[in-house]
Amino acid sequence: MTGEVPLTPVGREDIHKLEAALLVNTLFRPEVLEAIRSPEERLTWIDALAVAAGALAREKARMSIREIAEDLGRTEATIRAHLTGKTKAGQLVKKTYEEMLRKGGEISYISLLGLPEIRELVLALEEVHGVLKKAMDALSNLLKELERLTDIGGALKSLSDLISELRNLTEATQRLLVRLGGEKQGS
Asked: Are 40 and 78 in contact, with CB atoms under 8 Å apart?
């Protein structure tokens, strides 16, 4: 998959295109793929890379540090740290930008991956798909059980109503028998 990205964005749409390209291409760098394998690190890495990519894209659009910080909802110090390469995420995003610059804005999302990494990603996605399918099947079974229990609940309510009616009939019959028994004795 290839495309062309504006390396000096003009306007929001261009900023978002550059930001997305930086994030995606940085995520597919081998060192990042290795780092995000750990579930504990994954969210931190992805968040840091997203902020660094957003900061660099906005810097290339000539936004000030203050404007970038406001736009991304981060402190100016965080933005500065990413843009000056004091963070690993900032360094990696900058490397990705430089590679894109050398190619004149032409990007290939998969070019940064080798065949083994692609196979690994496919296997990981298949595993996630399998887990999601099992979870969906389990939820479907739970829904069927819930519907069955709801039907049982309705039947129990009907039985309870029927028992109440029978109890009322029994009491009425008992009263009638008592009255009839009293009339027989009086005759």
From this structure: no
